[in-house]
Amino acid sequence: MQGYVTNITETVEQGKPNIITSVQVETAVFADCHFLQEAVENSERVTGAVIEDLYADGAYQSPDNREFAKNHNGMQLKTGKMQGGCRWELIPHDEDGFTIREIATGNTYEAIKAVTRQGNRKRWRIPWNNKTGWRYFEDKDIQAYLTRRQIENLPLEEQHKRNNVEAVMFQYSFHTRNGKTRYRGLLKHRMHAYSRCMWMNLRRVVIFRISTFQKSIFALFEPFREVFGLIKMISQKIFIDGDDCHVAIMVRLNSKYAPF
User: Fold this and answer.
1) Among 50, 91, 178, 227, which residue has the fewest nearby CB atoms (within 10 Å)?
2) Distance between CA 115 and CA 231 in Å, rounded?
3) How far apart are the first and last CA of the chain?
4) What are 57-108's pLDDT values in tens digits?
């Protein structure tokens, strides 16, 4: 396999700009799941904080990463859908067996524990039409099924946070030609990735500071807006009846600012 792959990690905090904290560039033979643990360590070293929730693509799911997240201060690994389809529904009911339902046909089977030569290896089997006459399931199959169910049950707001990850790669590759860089060699690709992500961080901080400054200026003139709005409302509600002058003031409790 030729080419290079770039893995980018950024922060996701409410009311703060998303800042890139880790950039990893390797040859294309590296799978996505191999970047996760180093990316977590880099991000925690840069931010000085412990990661509580990690949002990633489904390709970052692996038994090693799930074990790493479990032992890493209970970090929650929240990813998109895992690669591959889900053919079976596994319903454990005791230590020695569980019920298996084939989703496509709806057929159910009672799996029984299979005897293995390896003491730590656990397998279950169901009757199946193949050379051996059995279809085997292992612990990793059960764990993968439970992980898929957990991903499907994530709230919509959590799924939207994961979708924002795609915006980083769009900005990173915006100036490439058909998604390909003009550089050759791992060192040059790393230099390009570092400089590009530093510029992205700078732009995000500048945009955040400008938007915050505009909000503060608007909040400074808010009392004047309310006063002038109230004066205009009073002037529009004055009715003169003979020698009497009646003033009617209407207050809208569901409006934040008085209308101009």
Assistant:
1) 178
2) 86
3) 64
4) 777 888 888 889 888 888 888 776 666 567 777 777 766 667 888 877 888 8
